């Protein structure tokens, strides 16, 4: 006899995610779920995104980590509301965690919430948070073969950010092979090459996100 524990957990999560999604639609708040490995530059990408969009939109960040509040403090130092979620060992965020986090935010005065999910290319893929889009970050030092090793996260993402492109020559990253692999898994997903700490390439990524926010606000 086999007992499937995963499906009941996902079913409950999905029901709560739909409630989150309805709330965000009502409040006209776009929620971005950022997925990436540890060290890929999630927080630096979030900071660069905030810098590009903060004059136009009111932004908050939900930080998901197994422990600590280091990243939330970095975000808060920029004058941006930040809520820390510590999972205590869980490798992903779930929809009920997001609901509890947004209860600490003023949704009536927000346009964008960026969720920095727990650093992981596997577990967060299966969990709907009620987000407007999942987007993943891959950094050049991680290698161009990651779409072959972790196809699920590339298929689930509506856009791909390729970070640390200023190091491409150092790590012998084959950009064409990477793009070809992504195109096979998810041909509709745009790829945005950036160097977040230098601000390079951020405008194109920010424009994509801006269009998504405006589309929700016009709906």
Describe the structure.
Helices cover 42% and strands 18% of the residues. It is an alpha/beta fold and 219 residues long. Strands 3-2-4-1-5-6-7 form a seven-stranded parallel sheet, with helices on both faces. α1 (6-27) runs parallel beside α4 (95-102) and α2 crosses α9. The protein is globular and about 45 Å long. The model is unreliable at 1-5 (pLDDT under 50).
Secondary-structure blueprint:
Elements: H1 6-27, E1 30-36, H2 42-53, E2 59-65, H3 70-76, E3 81-86, H4 95-102, E4 112-116, E5 133-139, H5 146-149, H6 151-156, E6 159-163, H7 168-171, H8 175-185, E7 191-193, H9 202-218
Parallel strand pairs: 1-4, 1-5, 2-3, 2-4, 5-6, 6-7
Helix pairs in contact: 1-4, 2-9
| SS element count, helices | 9
Average of pLDDT: 92
Structure class: alpha/beta
The biggest sheet amounts to:
7 strands, parallel
Strand order of the largest sheet: 3-2-4-1-5-6-7
Anisotropy-based shape = globular
Q: Indicate the percent of residues in helices.
A: 40-55%
Round the Cα radius of gyration to an integer and report it. Answer: 17 Å
Total strand segments: 7
Cα(first) to Cα(last) distance is 48 Å
Uncertain spans: 1-5
Strand content: 15-25%
Order of helices and strands: HEHEHEHEEHHEHHEH
């Amino acid at each position: 006899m086999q007992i499937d524990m995963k499906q009941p957990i996902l079913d409950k999560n999905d029901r709560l995610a739909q409630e989150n999604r309805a709330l965000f639609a009502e409040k006209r708040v776009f929620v971005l779920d950022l997925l990436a490995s540890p060290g890929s530059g999630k927080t630096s990408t979030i900071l660069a995104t905030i810098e590009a969009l903060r004059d136009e939109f009111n932004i908050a960040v939900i930080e998901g980590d197994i422990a600590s509040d280091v990243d939330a403090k970095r975000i808060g130092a920029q004058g941006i509301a930040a809520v820390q979620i510590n999972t205590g060992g869980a490798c992903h965020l779930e929809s009920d965690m997001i609901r509890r986090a947004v209860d600490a935010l003023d949704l009536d005065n927000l346009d964008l919430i960026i969720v920095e999910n727990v650093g992981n290319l596997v577990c967060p893929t299966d969990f709907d948070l009620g987000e407007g889009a999942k987007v993943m970050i891959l950094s050049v030092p991680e290698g161009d073969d990651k779409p072959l090793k972790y196809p699920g996260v590339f298929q689930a993402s509506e856009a791909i950010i390729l970070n640390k492109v200023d190091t491409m020559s150092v790590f012998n990253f084959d950009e064409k092979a990477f793009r070809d692999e992504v195109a096979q898994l998810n041909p509709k997903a745009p790829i945005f090459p950036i160097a977040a700490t230098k601000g390079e390439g951020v405008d194109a990524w920010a424009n994509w996100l801006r269009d998504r926010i405006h589309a929700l606000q016009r709906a």
